[in-house]
Specification:
Elements (H helix, E strand, L loop, with lengths): L5 H5 L4 E2 L11 E5 L2 E3 L1 H11 L19 E4 L6 H4 L5 E2 L1
């Protein structure tokens, strides 16, 4: 997920932080508002509509505007994390 997500953090879920700049833009995609975007497309969406906020709590048409999901399509950026060189919080 891109950025912080208070609902998951509040329930004690694990998180691993990875700088977006460490991943090539052709090896990551994003989901927002129930749709799939490249990094460039995501920038356009955020410029046009803003980041997800709390509107989903009261506006049924914003039900998918909870967070931005990130899918990493290669293991290389994650290898340092898998070998123990990562910072996770719970």
């Amino acid at each position: 997920m891109l950025g912080a997500f208070a609902l998951w953090e509040a329930d004690g879920s694990w998180k691993v932080e990875l700088p977006l700049a460490s991943i090539s833009s052709d090896r990551v995609s994003f989901t927002m508002t129930g749709e799939l975007f490249t990094l460039g497309e995501l920038r356009e969406q955020v410029d046009s509509h803003g980041l997800p906020g709390d509107a989903w709590r009261s506006d049924p048409t914003r039900i998918f505007d909870v967070y931005i999901g990130a899918q990493i399509w290669r293991d290389a950026p994650l290898l340092p994390l898998l070998s123990g060189g990562f910072h996770s919080t719970r």
